[in-house]
Each structure stands twice: as structure tokens, then as C-alpha cells.
Design brief:
The chain is mainly β and about 220 residues long. Helix content is about 10%, strand content about 40%. The protein contains three helices and twelve strands. A hairpin with a 2-residue loop joins β1 and β2. The model has no long low-confidence stretch (mean pLDDT about 90).
Length: about 220
């Protein structure tokens, strides 16, 4: 489990197709290798992936390079198949007992890929890439709009965010300068795809409603 609180930005240093249904990736990060175990789960842009190898960084910077592999289901539901060398990735390690739950409960099981259809800068500031804050308008993946509600939580590219408004299959979220400084959102633009994981409670509430007689 994760919280949607990004703690590092990694960079893809290797992306290799191992066949039609498997891709191997190496991602450099600022975390030291002794804090990561083989078999550990790391949320990579919101996608839960398993560490299969650890190596030192070759650029001399602190941290390590961890290796993960994405199989057919992940490649079909996410943008991982499009990642290439140089792609920046939001990273979060899995929760440990006693950790603060700063965002909301996130599984790392991406439901689909949404699309940024508009970005509004609010209170423009020349020192900030998107202004003081920015509102992102995002079209939900097909079939997921019913799980998204105003004031509810949503995980986008591994980032826990609050839904501001919902209209049909388009919803909005607000990003503040701090979010831009610690995530990849400052590089996002209209037309980009984003990993969407709907709130766990919303998913189960909808399932329970469907199970009721007459539901």
C-alpha cells in the first residue's frame, strides 16, 4: 500500500523490451540502496512495481539504480510501455507500520490512463512554471467517471490529489507550487496522459450499491 505522497523523482536510465509482453526498466533515484530490498514494492508514477535488482548510480550522485519489470497487464493499462531513457518518474516506497498516512490509501493498481485536456494558471507568478497554482482539467478513462466525486481523493501519476469539480467525464484538480517542486507535474501539459487510480472507498461503495437488491 501507498499514500500518494511522492518522496522522490526518479529517471529512467534503461528501457528494454524483453518480448511482446515484458519490459525491463532501470530507474535512478536519490534513495540509498541499503534502504531498499530486492522484492520491495515501489510506486513508479503510481504503478506498483517490484524491485528485481539494485546497482550503484553511474553519474556519481548519491542514491542507486533499481530495476523493475512490467508484464502484459501493466503494459496494457498504463503508459509504462512508452517510458524511455530520460523519462522522469514520481516515486514512493510502500507504507511501513507506523508511517504517517499523509495522503490517502493507494494500492498502486492503476485503473487506466486519463488525458489532460486543459491547464489553467491561477495567480500567475513569473518565478513558477505554472503560476502560483494551476488547475488541471482531466478526462477520466472510460468507465471510471462514476467513481470520481467532488471533494473526493484520486491518485494521478502516483500523486494523491483532491478532486475539485466533476462534469460528465471531466474532473479538475489543483496543484500548488510545492507539488510542482517535488513531482513531475511541472512538466505536464495539455494532451499528456496520466495514470489514474480511483479512491479505494469509492470503488467499494459502488460495488456494494450494485450488490443491493434493485441496485
Amino acid at each position: 500500500m501507498f499514500t500518494g505522497i511522492v518522496t522522490a523523482i526518479g529517471t529512467v536510465t534503461q528501457a528494454r523490451k524483453m518480448g511482446p509482453s515484458l519490459k525491463r526498466l532501470a530507474i535512478s533515484c536519490p534513495w540509498e540502496a541499503d534502504g531498499i530490498e530486492i522484492g520491495a514494492s515501489i510506486a513508479c508514477a503510481g504503478v506498483c512495481l517490484t524491485v528485481t535488482a539494485l546497482n550503484p548510480r553511474e553519474d556519481g550522485e548519491p542514491g542507486c539504480v533499481f530495476q523493475v519489470e512490467a508484464a502484459a497487464e501493466t503494459l496494457s493499462k498504463t503508459l509504462v510501455g512508452e517510458w524511455e531513457v530520460g523519462t522522469p518518474i514520481n516515486l514512493e516506497r510502500s507504507l511501513k507500520m507506523g508511517d504517517e498516512l499523509g495522503g490517502h490509501l493507494v494500492t498502486g493498481h492503476v485503473d487506466g490512463v486519463g488525458s489532460i485536456i486543459k491547464v489553467d494558471a491561477i495567480a500567475p507568478d513569473p518565478d513558477e512554471p505554472w503560476g502560483a497554482t494551476a488547475r488541471f482539467h482531466i478526462r477520466a478513462p472510460q468507465g471510471l467517471a462514476r467513481f470520481i466525486a467532488a471533494k473526493g481523493s484520486i491518485c494521478l501519476d502516483g500523486t494523491s490529489l483532491t478532486v475539485n469539480t466533476v462534469e460528465d467525464d471531466v474532473f479538475t484538480v489543483l496543484l500548488i507550487p510545492h507539488s510542482f517542486s517535488v513531482t513531475t507535474w511541472g512538466q505536464r501539459k495539455q494532451g499528456d496522459g496520466v495514470h489514474v487510480e480511483v479512491d479505494l472507498m469509492a470503488r467499494y461503495a459502488a460495488r456494494l450499491a450494485e450488490a443491493r437488491p434493485g441496485g
